[in-house]
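Ops channel
N.P.: pipeline sanity check, posting one input/output pair.
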């Protein structure tokens, strides 16, 4: 697998999960984390990939919305403004890390943090 295929795999995690139904997010993210480390993938590799494949923004936004009830990192949009942050288990307020009208960097941050977080559960 080359770096571009690894980036595609990472960005496809929600699609793979929804298509398979038998594989856990934990297993998918653990493999992704291994690819990130093995291939030396950094945030800006993901930003570049997302800019060239913008359909993934909506996919990751939907994935994030589907898990909003649990403690986790989040990514999403409201009124064409994107945000990235963390929702703590016993808190009514989110911790917002970044807000922007451009989704790519925030989505990349979210993917990397969620990958690390879920892999270590």
């Amino acid at each position: 697998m080359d770096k571009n295929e690894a980036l595609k795999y990472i960005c496809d995690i929600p699609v793979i999960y929804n298509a398979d139904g038998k594989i856990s997010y934990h297993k998918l993210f653990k493999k992704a984390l291994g690819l990130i480390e093995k291939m030396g993938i950094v945030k800006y590799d993901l930003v570049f990939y997302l800019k060239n494949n913008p359909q993934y923004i909506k996919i990751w936004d939907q994935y994030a919305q589907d898990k909003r009830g649990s403690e986790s990192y989040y990514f999403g949009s409201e009124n064409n403004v994107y945000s990235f942050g963390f929702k703590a288990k016993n808190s009514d307020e989110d911790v917002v890390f970044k807000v922007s009208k451009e989704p790519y960097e925030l989505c990349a941050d979210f993917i990397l943090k969620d990958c690390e977080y879920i892999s270590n559960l």
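N.P.: looks fine end to end. The helical segments are 3-11, 13-20, 25-39, 43-52, 55-66, 104-119.
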